[in-house]
Amino acid sequence: MEQSSLIDKSSSLSNSILRRAIATSSNHIILTDPDGTIVFANKAAEKMTGFSFAEMQGQTPALWGKQMPASFYKELWHTIKFRKKPFSGVITNRRKNGQQYFAQSRITPIKKRSGELIGFIGTEEDVTKDVLLKGRLELQYTLIKYISQTNMSLRQVVRKILQAICQLQNWVVSDYFAQVWLADSEETVLKCVETWHAPGAGATAFIDVTKKLEFHKGEGLPGAVWRTKRPMWIMDIANESREIREFKRGDIAKQIGLKSAFAFPILSDGEVVGVLEFFGREEKSVDRDFLNMFEAVGKQIGQYLKRKDYQKAIQSQNVKIEKGYIRDQAILESIAEGIIVVDTKMRITSVNKAAADLLHKDSDSLMGKLFLKAVNLVDSAEQSYTHAHHPVVRALSSKEVVVLGLNGEKCQLCPKPGQCLPLYLIASPLSYQGKMAGCVIVLRDIAEEARVDQLKTEFVSLVSHQLKAPLVTLRWYAEALSRQDGKPALTINNSDYVDEVYAATLRMIHLVDNLLVASRVDLGKTNPSVTKIEVRDVVDEALSDLKRDFTQRKQKFQLHLSAEPKKIHNDKQLIIMIIQNLLSNASKYSPVGGDINMTIHSDPHRLRITVRDNGY
After folding, report:
1. Residue 17 vs residue 101, higher pLDDT
2. Helix, strand, or coil here: 550?
3. Which residues make Cβ contacts (< 8 Å) with residue 317, sequence separation at least 6?
4. C-alpha dihedral over 582, 587, 590, 592, to 10 degrees?
5. What Cα–Cα distance (Å) separates residue 281 from each residue in 101, 173, 201, 255?
6. E strand spans, 343-406
7. Could you read off the pLDDT of 416-468 as tens digits, one per residue?
8. Cα dihedral 61/67/73/79 (nearest 10)
């Protein structure tokens, strides 16, 4: 009997201590019956939820719950009621004042020894700060991930941002609308460039009005954020919007049930380039930490927009380059001359159709090939160029234009063995920013020009021969008339006339001789007659035809001979022709009464002739 009484007292004492511990615990604790009806709540539960025990008693925890999806509560009830297993997890609740919070909830079934369920004990710990901190870090990471994706459009980025915000804050996405405002090119107004809302959100009228608006600094929510460069939060549009100048959408926002709004600046290099704005159908109290976080997000979006601008500029430049390339290719293909471009290693980087046809090859087959191997160039003797003497190598090494063909150094192209054709070639070095970039080679088949030029030369040679025969006859008869047996055969006047005829005939013969020499040079048939000649005799013979010109133009001629050897080995007629050409030009381009000086310096190996005059 005494032992039983002691046990009862001990049990009563234990229950009393347990109830006191529960009542004074700093953690939210409630007790419910098997149906979830609240039968007890401690002071911490009243403080956390904002409801008194009197308000809780007879109610279920749904009084401050119902913030999670219905499927969540269905699974929770199945776990604790029918499986009689405890639950532990973070859930979202709402206090009596409407404020949402996150709680670490633990619900444990209370069972008899027989296993019969007699109720539940539930505890909650406010973990809002921890959840928000973790969630905001995850949000920032998520947003940065979206923003860094170059293939996403601005609309897609805005939608992802809104979805991430709603997930973090446990907001219903369909209750929110997002707008992106960007400054115009002159940075005088903000214009709406993108909007987003969930399907069926009933925001058509609001969006239509928004798209037509423009905001200057300080006007409306976007303009206010633009001016302050800081995020802004409107908890109650009906009341607080009056504090913002020119809040132009207040009436339409109230008509469709929009109650709260917040916006933050999009910053690039410290300047506002736009504003991201959100409207919602729930009243939301100001969350400074939330706004501060989005101040950083705004900078990330600014970098995203800046990157997009760079991409657009690059794309635009690429389009211009592509169009320019197409135009240049069209021009290149329309040029009749063959054009080949090589890099500094002489690999072919571009070739037009004319060049490919000239080489009897396909353009594509030439790309990337070495020019020296793909294009067989030879000199006038059909000998391959040495590497150093090759025209393209010379152009690249000297950084100067090399021209071959026509009147200069001869060049031939041999696309096939035994099929060589005369070529006009220009090799022009390419430079970029002071550095060699390659070479442009222009090729032109001059076989027809060479044929015509040869015909012309042969014609001149033929005519010269035909002219010389009668001139020689005239010279003989003039000599015969002027003197017979060494004595004058005519009167003085007649003799002068015959002398004039004779001098003119000699000049004509001289001119014809020059034509013959020129034609032989062009035909490649020059055969100099080298003999040992007296310099003074050559000079006197050259001057004999020119003294009359000097006298008629009253020009003073002076000759200076060096003291070196007086005889040289050379072609007498060619030297005479050179001297006469120099002096004839000096007389022709010098004024009447001018001075003409000729200096001749000779040595056993060469003859140097210098003519100086005061002509123009």
Report:
1. 101
2. helix
3. none
4. 170
5. 19, 10, 10, 11
6. 348-351, 377-378, 402-404
7. 777 888 888 999 999 888 889 999 999 988 877 777 666 666 666 655 555 65
8. -70
Q: How many CB atoms lie within 10 A of CB 304?
A: 22
Whether the CA torsion 405, 410, 411, 416 is positive or negative: it is positive
Residue 98's SS3 state is: coil
276-297 in b/e form (b: 16+ CB < 10 A) is: bbbbbbbebeeeeebbebbeeb
Tell me the three state secondary structure of residue 310.
helix
* pTM to 2 decimal places: 0.44
Q: Express as a percent the part of the chain with pLDDT over 70.
A: 78
Mean pLDDT for the chain? 80
Of the candidates 230, 216, 221, which has an alpha carbon nearest to the alpha carbon of residue 183? Answer: 216
Structure confidence at residue 428 (pLDDT) = 93
Q: Distance between the two ends of the chain, CA-based, in angstroms?
A: 153
pLDDT at 9: 41
Angle at 456 between CA 452 and CA 460, to 5 degrees: 170
Provide the residue type at 331 as one letter. Answer: I
Q: Which residues pair with 430 in a beta bridge?
A: 438
The pLDDT value given to residue 190: 93
Distance, in Å, from the CA atom of 143 to the CA atom of 158, rounded to the nearest integer, reads 10
Q: Highest mean pLDDT: which of 176-185, 338-347, 449-458, 520-529?
A: 338-347
Q: Residue 163 contacts by C-beta under 8 Å, 6 or more apart in sequence? A: 173
Q: What is the pLDDT of residues 263-307, one digit of tens each?
A: 889 888 888 988 988 888 877 777 777 777 777 778 878 887 787
Number of H helices, E strands in the chain: 20, 25
Q: Could you tell me which residues come within 8 angstroms of residue 513 by beta carbon, excluding any fewer than 6 positions away? A: 468, 573, 577
Cα–Cα distance list, 52 to 57, 58, 95, 128 (Å): 9, 12, 12, 21
Token reading at 546: 């020119």
SS3 598: strand
User: CA–CA separation, 174 vs 170, rounded Å?
Assistant: 12
**Residue 147 near residue 303 (C-beta atoms within 8 A):** yes
In total, the chain counts a number of residues equal to: 616
Q: Which amino acid is at 608?
A: R
